[in-house]
Amino acid sequence: MRTAHQEWPDVLGTVISVRGRGVKKTSPGPVCRDAEPESPAFFLARRSVVRYLLSPRTLLQITIVQDFLQFIFAGLTSGAIYALVALGFGVVHNTMGIVNFTQVDFVSLGGMLLFSALFAAGLPMPLALVAAVAGVTLVGLVVEALGVRPARTDSHLVLIFLTIGLSIILRGVMKLIWGKNRMAVPPLTGELPVHLWGATILPQTLWIIVLTGAAILLLVLFFRKTNLGLAMRAVASNEHAARVVGLNVGWIKASSFALAGALGGLGGALVTPISTLAYDVGVLLGLKGFAAAILGGFGSFPGAIIGGIMLGLLESLGAGYLSSAYKDVIAFVVLLLVLFVRPKGLLGDAK
């Protein structure tokens, strides 16, 4: 025999579940007919709970929390992509002391190669993703070997303008190969959303966050545990001393372009399924990644990660609570404010 207190989960015979912006009522299972009659006080307490859960104030609070979580997850998704692009900028800057503007096209190229690997080569999604990242890595090597190294100059300004020209060339080649039409790429897995604390999250969002975290972890291990990573750190610290001890500085600089290509290509391949795909789609993403690198401190890897996440959250919260029209403006407003107030960024050094 069930007592009245054992009937508490029924809550007046109604199971209340909050989904999205509304409250859905469903009937509970069969009620035990031999339950003891509940006391009037217990009945009034249960009715008070139901009234509280159904009150407009409570529903408004739940909606506010759900919206906030939705904006947070959207900001983390964008921030992860910006962090990858910012890390690519930092890798080349630390080894060569320049801003590599071909990084923005590495993002576009990652999505384009993923599209071709899926629909032209017929590869499954995991292999297509690996092929896209490997292809952009190879392009990074070619850009350094054929575009930057022949310049034979140590002027950082000249090299920066050279990367701008190479960026325009890469964009033109992509337009010739893939055309100007917008394309679409399916997500890595299904499109059935995941509901977490009232927020609706696409599986691709989770993949972006997880794979970005894995890429950052691999990058840390690369710079701490591998000979090439340690050599890159040595060149970044003192290029002249690295030459004296016999390091192949030319190969290390080429490897930095390849690593930047891998990071940009991964970012482009991951963001393509939740955005449009075109030959110039990486320009805006790349410039936002550049703003994230400035925010965190140009050349600082922890700063690139923090700057990317902060910028993504600022964009998402600003678009959600102010207006989506300001979404693309926020990144450049932040860039200007950082340059005015703290030019070295959050974690950058004074130089």
What does this entry look like structurally?
The protein is mainly alpha-helical. The protein is built from twelve helices and four strands. A hairpin with a 2-residue loop joins strand 3 (194-196) and strand 4 (199-201). The chain starts with 14 loop residues before the first strand and ends in a 10-residue tail after the last helix.
Looking at this protein, list some descriptive labels:
351 residues; mainly alpha; ABC transporter involved in vitamin B12 uptake, BtuC; 2 domains; two-stranded antiparallel ribbon; 12 helices; globular; disordered N terminus
Briefly say what this structure is.
By secondary structure, the chain is mainly α.
SSE inventory with pairings:
Elements: E1 15-19, E2 22-26, H1 40-54, H2 56-96, H3 103-119, H4 125-148, H5 156-178, E3 194-196, E4 199-201, H6 203-225, H7 227-237, H8 239-244, H9 249-271, H10 281-296, H11 301-321, H12 327-341
Antiparallel strand pairs: 1-2, 3-4
